[in-house]
Design goal:
Shape: globular
Structural class: mainly beta
Distance between the termini: 28 Å
Number of helices: 1
Largest sheet: 5 strands, mixed
Oligomer: single chain
Number of strands: 30
């Protein structure tokens, strides 16, 4: 496995821009990754003022986008690359998770509440107070329990809260490394991974007992975490703060032992991370204030395959319903990018 940056392989690609209607503006095998048959196609979709978090609907037809400045949750139909009518939610919504039946969105708001949004009616159906700067959410497959990372405002927090849907209350807390900013739940729901920025670590939590089983130092401020589809690997992005954001890296962790398997230097600031549904590719969001790109790596060799330019200051990245489809939230790009790595596949 690779333990260092293998080189930059910029990809030429075709870009399509999609003009949104006024209402929307308001608002293979695991052993080998097939070669790209054609250049990636990037479709830009205006969606809100400052898109921050993304989640995919269970049928993979819709991407839900949180706009932290517009104070809305925005649906984007992936097939047509069209933004729908925004749903007003909270004061500063930061992330979103969708229930398995597609009926409810959980939206943490940095003002100190987590909102439950009825996606059928397009209205807020409930809210759960608590926490200092709720910033990220992960949802139990049952849809009855959620975990929210409280990053802290005046000072870094060390708390992940456990939220209960039935009582609309915080029913427990878990101590983690300082300033938790991202969460990921293992495919079987047994392990919650927590990325902590100030703590420069990933905390692994046994969801059955609600206790931390390991704290893994990742050599920089942890920004995001993602499991492989089979749950055998956990990927974390991290940035060394001095020099600021110059030493972005992808850290590969065995979630059962808490041991670091490898680390891949990416030579650029990094943020979100996701693994393709077929487990063959890892995609990392890399950004500055004025640029953004997705770095695509072979999940087996951990070697870089290509870099695909997307909107400025890309933050979150999620996988679409197909192995080569990915979506990014571009904080300064005022929208999302739909990236098809296999346009002829």
């Amino acid at each position: 496995m690779s333990s260092s940056f293998a080189g930059s392989l910029p990809a030429t690609r075709r870009r399509r821009s999609v003009a949104a209607p006024a209402a929307a503006l308001l608002a293979l095998t695991i052993a080998a990754v097939p070669a790209f048959a054609a250049d990636p196609v990037v479709t830009d979709v205006p969606a809100g003022k400052v898109p921050l978090g993304l989640a995919l609907s269970p049928d993979a037809a819709t991407a839900w986008v949180v706009d932290i400045v517009g104070k809305t949750l925005i649906p984007v139909e992936i097939a047509t690359a069209t933004a729908g009518t925004p749903i007003a939610v909270g004061s500063y919504p930061a992330d979103v998770a969708i229930s398995a039946d597609g009926s409810t969105a959980w939206v943490p708001d940095t003002s100190g509440r987590t909102y439950l949004v009825d996606l059928t009616s397009g209205t807020v159906a409930g809210e759960i107070p608590g926490g200092d700067f709720p910033f990220a959410v992960a949802l139990d497959p049952s849809g009855e329990r959620a975990w929210v990372a409280t990053a802290g405002y005046e000072a870094p927090s060390t708390t992940v809260e456990i939220l209960d849907r039935a009582s609309l209350s915080v029913v427990g807390t878990i101590d983690v490394a300082e300033q938790p900013v991202a969460l990921a739940l293992s495919p079987d729901g047994s392990i919650l991974a927590v990325a902590s920025l100030a703590g420069e670590a990933v905390t692994l939590i046994d969801t059955a007992s609600g206790t931390a089983t390991a704290t893994v130092a990742v050599g920089g401020g942890a920004r995001a975490v993602a499991f492989s589809p089979d749950g055998s690997r956990l990927y974390a992005t991290a940035n060394r703060q001095t020099p600021i954001d110059e030493a972005g890296r992808l850290v590969v962790i065995d979630p059962l032992t808490g041991e670091i398997v490898s680390a891949v230097g990416l030579g650029a600031p990094v943020h979100g991370v996701v693994v393709s549904p077929d487990g063959t590719r890892i995609v990392v969001a890399s950004r500055t204030r004025t640029t953004g790109e997705l770095i695509v790596l072979d999940a087996v060799t951990e070697e870089e395959m290509m870099r695909v330019p997307v909107g400025a200051d890309v933050r979150d990245v999620i996988a679409g319903g197909e192995p080569g489809l990915f979506l990014s939230a571009n904080r300064r790009g005022s929208g999302i990018s739909i990236v098809d790595l296999d346009p002829e596949g």
